[in-house]
Amino acid sequence: MTPFVSEIVGTFLLILLGCGVNANVSLQKTYGNGSGWIVITTGWAFAVYTGVVVAGPHSGAHLNPAVTVGLAVAGEFPWNTVPSYILAQFAGAMLGAFSVWLMNKDHFDATEDGNAKRGVFCNAPAIPNTFLNLLTEILGTFVLVFAVLYFTDAVISTDNTIIGLGSLGALPVALIVWGIGLSLGGTTGYAINPARDMGPRIIHALVPIKNKGSNGWGYSWIPVVGPILGATLAAVMAMVLQ
Question: Transmembrane ranges (predicted)?
Fold first, then answer.
């Protein structure tokens, strides 16, 4: 696979399994309905694991615009490649979210709560507070990107092989994301990834869902801006500490 295709496929798998566990826990008449936060955070960790396993050898498995920007700010990834990676990540996220909606259509129909339906796709704050919600996304993404930079020393090697998030190995990355979800995710749902939130949110707006409720556009900038700020801060901090 080319890096572009790899980022599409890896992000597709990330969102298929990640939004999939949201659907399994939140929608009515699934076998996993109501199984709780531990199941959600574990499912997302395994979703990251799967995406990184597949995409890592081909693109470095960023799967996240914040990771791509963070690596570029740190001088570990070429800026001219950033737009194509982000485009691929959004495409993969939207394909993954659409697949989750399609396979769970009967369960969306069986669910009355519009917020639960939207929560399958994208994040919302447990308690709305613009500053603190933004801070949560900044801190969560800071942990992710700082850990990636600290442990991988991600570079473009002399033979032009891309080494990025995938060089960590999939399991440590999954454990980092699991830890972020368990420790920091309870206030906003820990998007820590602009494509993970905005791509599925767009699909939520487009697909026919009965009583879907609001798309939450008023909040939607926070899971985009927060992760980018957190990734930038992590990159700057990593450079200062070198």
Answer: 37-55, 85-103, 138-156, 168-192, 221-241
